[in-house]
Amino acid sequence: MGRRHVNGLKTAGLFGVLWVVVLLLGGLVGDGRWIWLFAGIGLLGTAYGYWNSDRIAIRAMRARPVSELEQPGMYRIVRELSVAARQPMPRLYVSPTMAPNAFATGRNPKNAAVCCTEGILRLLDERELRGVLGHELMHVYNRDILTSSVAAALAGIITSVAQLLMFFGGDRDRGGNPIAVLAMALLAPFAAMLIQLAISRTREYDADEDGARLTGDPLALASALAKLKRGTQRAPLPANRDLVDVSHLMIANPFRGGGMATMFATHPPMADRIRRLTAMADEQGGITRF
To answer: How far is CA 42 from CA 14, 36, 88, 155, 240, in A?
Structure first.
């Protein structure tokens, strides 16, 4: 619980920094008169994405609903975990891609969807798949879709205001420094993107820990992540716009990364996630290794 408390404070702190950047930029454009217009536009766009998050992600992955007859193991695991969490059963989908990955989405537990790719269903054994599905269900139960939507809204507002600032050059009547204004306009969207990514990585850590508690098997998820690290490098998804927009929902970064790309990743390093889960198992007295 201590680590979860720290992650919660970190997320709150990052949101606070985003709001500070929004207010600073808003004060530079028209003496702050237009900030609420951009805030409204950003929030409306994000509300649409949040409300339709399940449809957007499912469509991007070309996934189809599956019956219990088609995927009895997947149904059994999700039903057991949903009952254990005292939450409704989500809809289940399978994406035809061989890139191993999984995600859960939906605005609340009653409107949730869980999707696995054919690649991950072939790659993992049942114990590892249970660990992955526990992680994904906790994203829904923790309302992480709402968290990421709010972060996206704030980042979008910052980017829009920064573009306006570059176009109009800030409030000239106040005698502002044009170099400082330009620097703020260029750096603010970059900072907002980094903060948004940091929030996403923090929520991944929480879903790892909470999912491991739900399944009672941290090492199963650690083993799955080790396989996914290798599998996603062998069979990455194409980095087209639709997939990039939903990649933060997936349990593993679906694109081939490395070098500077690590800084802009929506997921924390796999090695660090595995290390945390292994430490969690040791704290619980786990002795099984993968």
So the answer is: 18, 10, 31, 9, 23
